[in-house]
Amino acid sequence: MRVLGIETSCDETGLALYDSERGLLSHALFSQIAVHAEYGGVVPELASRDHVRKLLPLIRQVMAEAETSPEQIDAVAYTAGPGLIGALMVGASVGRSLAYGWGIPALGIHHMEGHLLAPMLEDNPPEFPFIALLVSGGHTQLVQVRGIGEYRLLGESLDDAAGEAFDKAAKMLDLDYPGGPHIAKLAERGRAGRFTFPRPMVDRPGLDFSFSGLKTYTLNTVAEHAQADGLPDEQTCADIAHAFQEAVVGTLVIKCRRALEQTGQKTLVIAGGVSANTRLREELEAALAKIGARVFYARNEFCTDNGAMIAYAGCQRLLAGQTEPLAVNVRARWPLDSLPPLSA
Ligand code: ATP
Ligand code: MG
Ligand code: FE
């Protein structure tokens, strides 16, 4: 089975062709970072318009690269939510229409299921069951995963998502959007021990997160050390980035370890943009080795939004016989644990 995957939930246009026998055949991504840069965040209307511009050329590109004609495609999978409603509508309308025109089924895929399954695209994929830490721009969730579509939410952020906290801290330090990679780079030059930021909610039982207090702490620290231009000196900025990253990573590691211990699982999957963070990977590897558990993640380009994860999720659901009617339904909000299991 060969599936075309379309991702347009936010500010990246992602396309891919996945084949159940041969694996990932081709993928392409256009990131709108430059489109939104001067606004310091994603402008929904501009995102929708840019998806309109990029979708068809990128579909042609992945089909040409994989030497695949429409007759060789068995289904079209598109992101149906959660995300920006206009951006979702673009991918959904194009995906649904292509499927109709080609006489094949379409599948509306949950964006976070896509992220969660992205590590399956790697050479040594994790095996079910596992615990998943979803850490992206809009989500911070711990999920118990028995199989595809069998998700139990164990905990989540009560306020900001981890990626959102990275983005906001970056803004305070006058770094570009999206801030995660910039904070990580600046933090390499930061000195350990200059600042210690609070690790939110780690002393409380349970598996929920909170990052808004850390954000305020960062803002206050920046203000305290600000010079005439409103920013601390370079070294202090690096020290703040370092302390901030250590606090986020430290919090995530403690909760992941707790989730594994509480459920007796030995496999952790991390997914979403923040799972590209090197410090998070290192710290998790070290902490999990102590309890005989292992961590799995996707290559960096499949941690953030991409079409490959949607094509993969679509292919698994197609193989299980799932398809959907002609209506185009997208959802700005969509609880992950409301998805049907594969056997349903
Ligand atoms: P969602 O998936 O919840 O709808 P999203 O699609 O915007 O949100 P992703 O594309 O998965 O999120 O990830 C983007 C986020 O990941 C941004 O907040 C970005 O700052 C963060 N990020 C990317 N790389 C890194 C990194 N190396 N370290 C920390 N954060 C990172
Ligand atoms: Mg993005
Ligand atoms: Fe995402």
TrEMBL record:
Residues 24-312 form the Gcp-like domain. It is an enzyme of class 2 (transferase). Its EC number is 2.3.1.234. Fe cation binds at H111, H115, D305. Its cofactor is Fe(2+). GO terms for cellular component: cytoplasm. It is found in: Cytoplasm. One of its GO terms (biological process) is tRNA threonylcarbamoyladenosine modification. Binds 1 Fe(2+) ion per subunit. It catalyses: L-threonylcarbamoyladenylate + adenosine(37) in tRNA = N(6)-L-threonylcarbamoyladenosine(37) in tRNA + AMP + H(+). It comes from the Bacteria. Coiled coil: none annotated. One of its GO terms (molecular function) is iron ion binding. Substrate binds at L134, V135, S136, G137, G138, D167, G180, N277. Keywords: Acyltransferase, Cytoplasm, Iron, Metal-binding, Transferase, tRNA processing. Required for the formation of a threonylcarbamoyl group on adenosine at position 37 (t(6)A37) in tRNAs that read codons beginning with adenine. Is involved in the transfer of the threonylcarbamoyl moiety of threonylcarbamoyl-AMP (TC-AMP) to the N6 group of A37, together with TsaE and TsaB. TsaD likely plays a direct catalytic role in this reaction. Belongs to the KAE1 / TsaD family. This is tRNA N6-adenosine threonylcarbamoyltransferase. It comes from Marinimicrobium koreense.
